[in-house]
Amino acid sequence: MEKAMHQSHGCGFAEYERDLEKRLDVEKDREKEYKKGLEVAADANRNHTP
Fold this sequence. Notes:
Elements: H1 2-9, H2 13-18, H3 20-47
């Protein structure tokens, strides 16, 4: 998990845990990725519905 966190967000969990600004940046990125995923899923559903 530590490696994935570092690869995805450029910091380890310990840094995420103690640095509020880093935590806010990571959570903003996660929210953006989540919304993008919802859009991709919605597009896929629209394009593949018979």
